[in-house]
Amino acid sequence: MQEALFYEKLAEGRVQCRLCPQQCRIAPGRHGICRVRKNVDGTLYSTNYGQTTSYAVDPTEKKPLYHFYPGSYLFSLGTLGCNFRCDFCQNWQISQQDAPAETLLPREALRLSEEVWRREPRTIGIAYTYSEPSVWYEYVLDTARLARATGLKNVLVTNGYIEREPLAELLPVVDAMNVDVKAFSDDYYRRVCGGHLDPVLRTVEQAHQAGVHVEVTTLVVPALNDSDEEIGALVEWLAEVGEEIPYHLSRYFPNYQMDLPATPTTTLKRLRDLASQKLRYVYVGNLPSEGNNTYCYSCGALLLRRDGLGVAESHLRDGHRCPRCGVEIDIRGQVMVS
Q: Which of 283, 262, 259, 260 lies closest to 271, judged by CA?
């Protein structure tokens, strides 16, 4: 265990965690909602520091990040715990239960990522993913600082539920984020996820303003967040933050405590067309061979053809410009063709 950052000591040995908007008040011997921050005799500890449930080498597109070093790879790490309770959680075995974990301290994680790079030179850095990385805050901060010092990139795949001050301390060593904006309704967040909408929107805005590459994903769940009105409102907000931010509409499948039928493909295509009226780049996820290519937002020319989660063809010219109309495409970093 390691003493946690961002908490306050209260009377009678209680503490208040200030890391995320849950603002848990925790009695001695108890955990916060995330299950991994524990009050031990009046001191808050991160009990999952270095506790890694899984690690793997993933395509960057899997996160999904389609405009950040397209075609590259990331050494991906995950841990226990989450500050949400999403009914449809796809990784509930590690986010909601105590799955087996091994200790992988920051320098060991860095050593493994460098070994991966020697085998696969398209590996550009480390992704903190699989479960919510913000509840692994101290570990992510320490590891990301080491990675940044050696030239590796740092990527967060996150629900965005973190307070402004800890996020501000972390952002200088973060290169890219994919943020789940699960709906555009506070009622949905309260009923389905156990949280609130506004802090998530603030995270997207704060990261974008800090110059971090941001992409946004919404898991489209039938009858809960799939209306034109809701997605339209979300898209209006996102376009105001930055119309160049790539937006991913992901297909829901039954999982964990939700047994609604899978999202119809017609719904995803309809919402993709709707979102494309305001945003430059809209993609459809969890739907093979549908909506994965990158097209010019100005003239419609094919720019990147993806085969699964890799880039099979790049038609960009002079850096990141469309070969047909010459407009500059919003891509961070080198395109790596398989």
A: 283
- Which CA distances in Å does 218 have to 3, 35, 108, 123, 200? 34, 25, 33, 26, 12
d(CA 276, CA 192): 27
User: What average pLDDT does the segment 178-190 reach?
Assistant: 98
Model confidence at 244: pLDDT above 90: yes
Axis-axis angle for helices 228-242, 265-275 (nearest 10): 40
| Pairing between β-strand 102-103 and β-strand 51-52 as defined by DSSP bridges | antiparallel
Please report, for residues 141, 224, 233, the alpha-carbon distance to residue 270 in angstroms, rounded to integers and kept in the order given.
40, 16, 15
- Averaged pLDDT of the chain: 95
Separation in Å, CA 284 to CA 111, 159, 217, 294, 312: 35, 19, 10, 11, 18
CA 15, 17, 18, 24 torsion-angle sign: negative
Q: Given this structure, which CATH class describes domain 51-291? A: alpha beta
What global pTM score does this model have? 0.96
Given a cut of 70, is residue 290 above it in pLDDT? no
pLDDT at 137: 98
The Cα 277–Cα 275 span in angstroms is 5
Q: What is the DSSP string of 141-161?
A: HHHHHHHHHTT-EEEEEE---
Please list the helix, strand and coil fractions of the chain in percent, rounded to the nearest 5, in that order. 30, 25, 45
pLDDT grade, residue 100 (50/70/90)?
confident
How many H helices and E strands in the chain? 8, 19
Calpha distance 111→109 (Å, rounded): 5
The model's confidence at residue 156, banded by pLDDT at 50, 70 and 90, is very high
Which residue in 246, 257, 234 sits closest to 186, CA to CA? 234
Cα distance between residue 142 and residue 131, in whole Å: 18
The residue type at 169: E
Domain ranges across the chain: 2-46, 51-291
